[in-house]
Amino acid sequence: MKDESIMSENQSVTQQVLDFQTKVATLRQEIGRVIVGQKEVVDGVIACLLAGSHALLEGVPGLGKTMLVRTLAQAVRLDFSRIQFTPDLMPADIIGTTVIDESANAGKVFEFRKGPIFSHIVLADEVNRATPKTQSALLEAMQEHRVTVGRTTYTIEEPYLVMATQNPLEMEGTYPLPEAQLDRFFYKLAVTFPSREELHSIVDRTTTLHEAEVKAVLEREEILGMQKLVRQVAVARHVQDYAVRLLQATHVQTGKAFDKVQRFVRTGASPRGLQAMLLGAKIQALFDGRFAPGIEDIRSVAPLALRHRILLNFEGEAEGVTTDAVIEQILSQLPESA
User: Fold this and answer.
1) What is the DSSP letter of 129?
2) What is the mean pLDDT of residues 73-96?
3) Distance CA 160, CA 53 (A)
4) What are the tens digits of pLDDT across the range 117-143?
5) Alpha helix (H) ranges present in 96-160?
6) What is the mean pLDDT of residues 75-104?
7) Which CATH superfamily is 19-85+119-146+154-232 part of?
8) CATH classification of 234-338, choosing from 1.10.620.20, 3.40.50.300, 3.20.20.70, 1.10.8.80?
9) Would you list the DSSP string of 42-86?
10) CB count, 10 Å around CB of 209?
11) In whole angstroms, what is the distance from residue 96 CA to residue 82 CA?
12) DSSP SS3 for 138
């Protein structure tokens, strides 16, 4: 009886993983009706949704960042709102405001009108154009999934995903995101320039009568179930230890830092980077139909999880060193076991 119970449980787990993989494949296909290429970015955004966290998309204008977010919202049948960040945007424009509501029976009453942050999927477009005061209005919502106005706290319905975009080239009139806010993003995704064939596909879709219709392929309850499955995936101790040592290697203070870390890094990644690597590895394993992540999964998600959490010193910035180059050296030299 015990063997039969174990066999039944294994079959159930296998079926859950297959269902997860099928749903993700269907979602990818639906997004692909509109978005050409950008597989890593699409998978990264889906991973952020399934991890219950947020994504920072960086790329020059015209690469489809806004369209990707809008398409994802349509494909998963979730509430969607877009906030265009500008220097004159105020916190109340994001969170909402309390107004006096006059009615014939109740007279004058104070009522809180929720802002665009109260959606399942929020697009914070050109987030680095807003002032630090307005950017900080996102912090509580991103971390706690709730907003406090006065003495009242309002909970944001799950699932909740903030996807922020920023332009890496145009620096005039922008405000660098504070480290505390950057740390709230699960992944930082680089939206790259399309290839020659992808450019042909883009113009074929956008300069003709072709009009893609995106259908909802996932419901809210299915997404919540997939998020729960991600948390149930077990991680072997040696895999977790590799991720821990990888995080430690980004810090000069550990005494085990590699050359580029010692020379160019001011502050290493926070423990949230470790959490992002482990959750990302679990999701990566489920993407591939596996219920146990390996060290290769940690290695594949490390740049996405750490690139915005490592802060370079003056020498690193002056020499044009990238955090990706620092992470690449760590990954190439860090042994799999210690």
Assistant:
1) G
2) 85
3) 7
4) 888 888 888 888 888 778 777 777 888
5) 132-144
6) 81
7) P-loop containing nucleotide triphosphate hydrolases (3.40.50.300)
8) 1.10.8.80
9) HHHHHHHHHHT-EEEEE--TTSSHHHHHHHHHHHTT--EEEEE--
10) 4
11) 14
12) helix
